[in-house]
Structure formats: C-alpha cells, structure tokens
Amino acid sequence: MKISTKGRYSLRMLLDLAEHKDEGFIALKDIARRQGISKKYLEQLVPLLGSGDFLRANRGYQGGYMLARAPGQYTVGQVLRVTEGGLCPVACLENEPNQCGRSGYCKTLPMWQGLQKVIDEYLDGITLQMILDESTEAGEYCI
Fold first, then answer.
1. What phi and psi, each to the nearest 5 degrees, are found at residue 48?
2. Cα(116)–Cα(12) distance, integer angstroms
3. What whole-number percentage of the chain has pLDDT above 90?
4. Cα 86 versus chain centre, distance
5. What would the DSSP string read from start to end of 122-143?
6. What's the pLDDT tens digit per position in 108-131?
7. Alpha-carbon torsion 68, 8, 124, 48, what sign?
8. Which residues of 25-62 are buried (b: 16+ CB within 10 A; e: fewer)?
9. Residue 64, exposed/middle/buried by CB under 10 A (0-12, 13-18, 19+)?
C-alpha cells in the first residue's frame, strides 16, 4: 500500500487548518504558501474533504476554510479513507462480505485480514491533534 500525494497533501492541509484554527476561516492561498502546495491542487482536495465533513467553508471577502470539528476528532485513518478511497492492502478486502470466490478456502486471507486490522488500528489511533502535539515537541511536521 502506498499513500498518494492526494492523501499526504490532504493531511497537510488539514494540519495547517488545525494549526491556525484560532484565526477563523483560512484562504487556500495562505495554506498553499505555507505548505508549498499549489492552490490549484488544494482546490481539487476541497470537494473530497468537504464530502467527508472535514471542512466548513465561507465565501466572500473573509472567505476560506476551517475544520468542522476539533483536531482531536479527526483520525489519519478517516482522512486517508476519504482521499485514497480505502486502505485495504488487497482488493478482496474492499467489500464486506468478501466477494472473492476463493475466500472460503484462501490460505492467505487471514494474513491479509490481520494486516488490515493493524493498519486500521494504527491509523485510527492517530489524530490531527496528536500530530500537532508531537510536532511542537520535535519541530515541524513533514508528511
């Protein structure tokens, strides 16, 4: 499994909003400048993150984006599932119940299920707030 630029940049965008949450609505141009990501790319992420109820938007002169909830209420797993379309290590785990014709006798299925469990538990155990707290201690975050 490899996390795409879309997933990494979405995390950076949300972390930037979390870091500047006390400033109200933040313009994409400001996030783009601070994060070194093009504004055009951020504009492509907004619909994804908006559909996942991560963002609140405000149009107009003081327009921009802010987190819809507190940073501690967003897990990395939630963000990556929305942006990556899932976190399954193999295609046969994407549907529940398993649609693979071999699932009833597949010798490797338990291994893949175990890996899926580890991935989910790990990424769902990390919040945006935890990343910010750790970056305060260690310096800047890098995703």
1. -60, -50
2. 24
3. 67
4. 11
5. HHTT-BHHHHHHHHHHHSS---
6. 888 999 999 999 999 999 999 999
7. positive
8. bbebeebbeebebeeeebeebbebbeebebbeeeeeee
9. buried
User: Which amino acid is residue 25, in one-letter code?
Assistant: F
DSSP character for 96?
S
3-state DSSP percent of the chain in helix, strand and coil, to 5:
55, 10, 35
pTM: 0.88
CB 77 within 8 A of CB 3: no
Please tell me the distance from the alpha carbon of residue 38 to that of residue 118, in angstroms, as a whole number.
33
